[in-house]
Amino acid sequence: MVDRKGKGESNSYLERQSDRAVYVISVAAELSGMHPQTLRIYERKGLLDPARTDGGSRRYSQDDIERLRRIQELTNSGIGLEGVKRIMALETEIKELKEKLRVLEERSKAEQEKIHKHYRRDLVPLSQAVVLFRGAKRP
């Protein structure tokens, strides 16, 4: 197996199965329904960046196959390769922004919970003390 940087086998347990570069170009071409030369062209145009073995052979992941299918879908609808490249860059940006938003929402929720916890810990007993103080009879 080759990792996405082409630096040999990765031992990370967190590695996603779909990101593992295991397919040679002929298999990737067959899985995506394209000619191997088309995959090479897409790589030259910057639409695809397959991993490489130490010997320089391309290795494609399931993510790469899905990307190829998306490219094919867009080109079949009449969009040129530069347009496809821009659309896919924007789709990637949207995905990254959604992930950032999710992280920020989690942080915000955690901060709100922290504030409410401090409120309950500090202000509620204080408000009870004020009630007790007001209820105390003056001499």
UniProtKB/TrEMBL annotation:
Positions in coiled-coil regions: 87-114
Keywords from the UniProt entry: Coiled coil, DNA-binding, Stress response
SMART domains: HTH_MERR
Claim: Lipid biosynthesis is one of the keywords in the record: no
SUPFAM superfamilies for this protein: Putative DNA-binding domain
Domain HTH merR-type: 22-90
Keyword Protein biosynthesis among record annotations: no
Alphabetical list of InterPro entries matching this protein: DNA-bd_dom_put_sf, MerR-type_HTH_dom, MerR_fam
MF terms in GO: DNA binding; DNA-binding transcription factor activity
Alphabetical list of NCBIfam families matching this protein: HeatShock_HspR
UniProt name for this protein: MerR family transcriptional regulator, heat shock protein HspR
